Amino acid sequence: MPRAILIGISGYGRIHLGLARAARPLGLELVAAAVINRQEEVEEVAQLEREGCRLYADYPSLLRHEAAGADLCLIPTGIAWHERMTVAALAAGLSVLVEKPLAGSVSEARAISAAERAAPGRFVAVGFQDLYNPEVHAVKRRLLEGCIGRIERVRFLGLWPRPTAYFRRNRWAGRMAAEGAPVLDSVLSNAFAHFVMLGLFFAGPRAAEAASLAEVQAVLWRTNAIETFDAGAVHAVSREGVQFWFGASHACASTHEPEIVIEGSAGTLTWLHEREWRLETRGGLRERQPIVDAHANRAAMMDAVLRRLSDSSVFVCGPELASAHTSLIERIHQVAPITPAPGPVEIRHLDGIEGEVLCAPQAERLLREAFARGTLPGRTVSSAGALACHDSAR
Prior knowledge:
Elements: E1 3-7, H1 13-22, E2 29-34, H2 42-50, E3 54-56, H3 59-66, E4 72-75, H4 79-91, E5 95-98, H5 106-117, E6 124-126, H6 134-144, E7 151-159, E8 177-178, E9 181-182, H7 193-202, E10 213-222, E11 231-238, E12 243-249, E13 256-264, E14 267-272, E15 276-281, E16 286-290, H8 294-308, H9 319-335, E17 338-340, E18 346-348, E19 357-359, H10 361-373, E20 379-381, E21 387-389
C-alpha cells in the first residue's frame, strides 16, 4: 500500500488533501503532513488527527521523521518553495508530486532534474493536470500521425477576470521573487500555465515531448498593483518552425474560456477547455469529442502518479517536459519590459466575482484582435514575414 506525506493543507493544499483522501480506494494512505498554520486550520487539523495523520510544524521535521516510511511527497506550495522542497524530498528517498509550475527559473528546474537523476527509482511528477488526461495523448497521437498535416501555428487565448484580492492572497502572488527564490508569477505562469503547457505539448515533435522555442517576443501589461504582468501576449517560433501565440488577461471584464487552436497544412484542431475538441480537415473530415473537467484531470493525475510508483512505464509530466514552460516564462521576462496596460482602467463589479476587478478594456480588445491574427497586439505580419510595429503598440 503506497504511503504519502503532504506539505501544506491551506490554499491549493486543500486540493492535494482532497486528492489524497479520494485515492484511499486506490490504496493510498496519507500518513503525515506539515501544517505551519494550525491556528487557521483548527477543524482540518482535528479531522486529520482523527484519521491518524501525524502533523508537524515544518517540512524539514516532516521529512526527517516520516520519509523512511513513505513513498510519495505531495508539494502543493508556493512557487518559491518548489525547488528546495522537491530536492529535499528526493534526497530523503521519496518520489514527488509538485504543483505547477515546476519552478521559478530554469536553473531551479535543472536542479530538480539533477536531483531526480541522483535518486534512482524515484521520480518527480508536475501538476500540469491536463497532461494526465488520456484524451490529450489521443489527440497528440493524431497530430503526430498527420491528422491536420504539418503543424504550422498554435494559438491560445484565455480571459479570466480576477479581483484585486486575488493578487494579495499570499506573499508571492504577482511577485518576481519571494522567500529568497525566483517566482515570476503571472497570468501565463499560474492560472493559464496549464494551457501554455498544452500548446507546447501538442506541437512537440515526439509523443512525450514539448516544443522547444528558438525565438520569443512578448507584450506584457500591468493593471493591478503587482510586480509582474496580469495581461499580455507572446509570439514564439519553435526549432521546428511552428509559430506560437499565447495571450491571456486577468484585468478584463469578460471571460473567454481557454481556447487552443492548432493549425496545420491540411486542417485545424481546436481544444476548448472542459468542453470539447474539434477536428476539421481540408479533405472534409469533421470530428468532435468531449473533454472532461479539471476535477477529472486531477483524479487522473493522482491515479497516474500512484501507478508510476510501481510501474516506471506510466507517463507522468516530469521535470524535462515541464521545463518547457519554465523556460518560456523566463524568456518572456528577458525579452520584454512590463508596461502599464493601454487605455483607461475601469473598476468593475462582475457577476460571480467578490470584490472589485481592475479592467483594461483596450488591452482586452487588443488581445482578442491579436489572437485572431496570431500576431502581437498592435502588430501585423509584413509581406516578408517579419513583424511590423504600429504606433498603437508603442
